[in-house]
């Protein structure tokens, strides 16, 4: 490698650190958010900030380079750009590391941050480091606690006893969104079900807004919006109460098919349903108790799996179908979950596949009540579509849709039901029984109950005298100094809440704190937020489509309703979800031995080569396959760029006056057209879906063309050579086009050409539209819309001249002979069409 560097003269290690220090000392990327400068538009560019694991991986490099190129591009286009970076620095890995190493997680976290910050800086990323924030530092989590209290005061944070997802490895509770195929999103452990008293955020209060506003997110990928739509999963139907046979209780069920209610021949409750004990007869008590114990041992995934045989036990009790007035048996089955819907279902086996299988298995009654208009009733399989009602009393003959409305009206009139909307979305469970997180700012007093900590007493600091080995409960409970306190209301003895918050709470509002990170009076100034939100371009992984992105939208909407965000309800205007970086066709992982260490690439080839390569292979939303040989090819290409500039620097003068287009000879015109077509194409590709791989292809074409121009002999005296204005223009455009992608080499060559000031503070080049058009064009000639001939004409030939030339063509004269000409349609530079009869 040394010989290549010496021979070619491009030495990235010699220039990159120098320019990074220079940009930092100049404050080149510092942004003032107090106001947007007059005459400028704002542009807020943001990557999903990293967890400080200790080292960057190539996925990080791709994510942050994409955002950096966008931010640099917009800055050169004249925007006031905000591009900050921070650390999502609470979380289980730090705590687990502390347990394993016997150290404080704070020390582990900040050591990792220091290492990763240096790596980010070596990539030449244009961050405003004055805004760097750390979610684990008290000047940040003070305001995370403020967010909790804000939601609590608005009735959006509450505590209740609930079945929860328990991670047996990380010894903590997980939100529903953090359970993927029955396993913990982080540890991969099979999740267990436990009943615990936990804190929740009432995200369901915003279910309609989160769903209904999705069409407004025009800058988001459709698949992300589809994932959120499916997760919220709004269903419309009816809630109907089935009275127990003794009339003492009611069992509420939700159904999207009230038109089938006359066919409800049995009911199924979750084993945990509070009425199971009341309904169970003495004869069935032992069987019910045994089944309930078995259900406790199964995960939610096991209970709801569609491919397992459904099991259940009859309680011995009955409820009354409010429409037929007939008793229906009440069963329990583990496929019904208490926390979904009402924890009870009406079973209509003739029209539901699951209910049909259950009824067949246990010999329960099957009564068809919907007739397929195009087929007879088949007793061997359920009919699940709409149709005409049968066996439904006075509703017989009605269509399903008409019957739904009438049946709901009857329920509302009779006081035993109502129209209702239900969601798959569940409230966000935010309690965590771990240490390294923001303490929940609440105390528990025997006299006053649950009392929020006053805002002037924030932050509630994490204690350091804790036992990290505590299992099944929060380590905060092991600190007597933390645990025991006084009630803010009565002053009597009280205990602090010992759960900490889900780290996704910290990351659900950080984009707002970036706007005003040094504010000590409030989390952020609403005026600044009104000025700078939303984030104009957000970049991150598709894996956060439900977790982080849904939570952030909820929190932004909740803050908006309290007049904290000005007119802005959504946090991210445009979203780019970049693909993974693969090696040998597989995701990089230590277990597969296919990890590429960014430090190795930076040491051998430099940051610009890494940036250029990571942008060159695929569109940003596609997966990217790392190839070592391609990295070397990118390095060689940057060497070519170096030579294209340095070998001819004697004839280059930035800002040289270019002759008029009409005065150029053929070669000059060809080069001028290439320059402007490249400018136009690169600009379009960046602005249209950030197709950086095609951007780089266009830049390569331009460099290859410049390299074919005869280089200046090294022995020629620079004083004897005239300036070449067109080559100068080409190099100036090339360096500006490269500046967002390879900022160091572009800056170095810019300065070596005698420029004053940074290339990153210059204006993005604008194409000369005159040069984008060819000198000649091919004109199609039609008669009654059918192509009859073609001819070549100078570009921008007047319409009259095009018509005259077309009339003189022999083929056209033959088609016009003896015909009445109705009209002539001329499309400039493209078409002449004669309409005849």
Report on the structure:
By secondary structure, this protein is α+β, with helices and mostly antiparallel strands. It is built from 28 helices and 32 strands. The strands form nine sheets. Strands 8, 9, 10, 11, 12, 13 and 16 form a seven-stranded mixed beta sheet that branches. Strands 2-1-24-25 form a four-stranded parallel beta sheet, covered by helices on one side. A four-stranded antiparallel beta sheet has the order 4-3-7-17. The relative contact order is 0.11.
The helicity comes to 25-40%
The termini sit apart by: 75 Å
**Beta-strand share of residues:** 15-25%
The overall pLDDT, averaged over residues, is 92
- Strands, count: 32
Please work out how many helical segments DSSP would assign. Answer: 28
Give me the oligomer status: single chain
Structural class: alpha+beta
Shape: globular
Report the sheet with the most strands, covering strand number, pairing sense and barrel closure. 7 strands, mixed
Low-confidence stretches: 1-8
The radius of gyration computed from the alpha-carbon positions, rounded to a whole number of angstroms, is 35 Å
Would you kindly provide a brief summary of this structure?
The chain has 837 residues and is α+β, with helices and mostly antiparallel strands. The protein has 28 helices and 32 strands.
Question: What distinguishing features does this structure have?
Answer:
837 residues, alpha+beta, seven-stranded mixed β-sheet, four-stranded parallel β-sheet
SSE diagram, text form:
Layout: H1 2-8, H2 12-26, E1 42-47, H3 58-76, E2 80-82, H4 92-101, H5 105-122, H6 138-153, E3 157-167, E4 172-174, E5 179-180, E6 183-184, E7 192-201, H7 207-212, H8 222-232, E8 234-244, E9 250-255, E10 266-269, H9 276-279, H10 285-296, H11 300-304, E11 313-320, E12 327-332, E13 344-347, H12 353-362, E14 370-371, E15 388-389, H13 400-414, E16 417-423, E17 428-429, E18 431-432, E19 442-445, E20 449-452, H14 480-483, E21 484-486, E22 493-496, E23 500-501, H15 503-507, H16 510-513, H17 526-532, E24 537-541, H18 547-560, E25 575-578, E26 581-583, E27 586-587, H19 598-605, H20 607-616, E28 624-626, H21 628-646, H22 666-687, H23 692-707, H24 725-738, H25 743-752, H26 769-772, E29 776-783, E30 786-794, H27 799-807, H28 810-816, E31 821-827, E32 831-836
Parallel strand pairs: 1-2, 1-24, 10-12, 24-25, 26-28, 29-32
Antiparallel strand pairs: 3-4, 3-7, 5-6, 7-17, 8-9, 8-11, 8-16, 10-13, 11-12, 14-15, 18-23, 19-20, 19-22, 21-22, 26-27, 29-30, 31-32
Helix pairs in contact: 2-25, 3-20, 4-5, 19-20, 20-21, 21-23, 22-23, 22-24, 23-24, 24-25
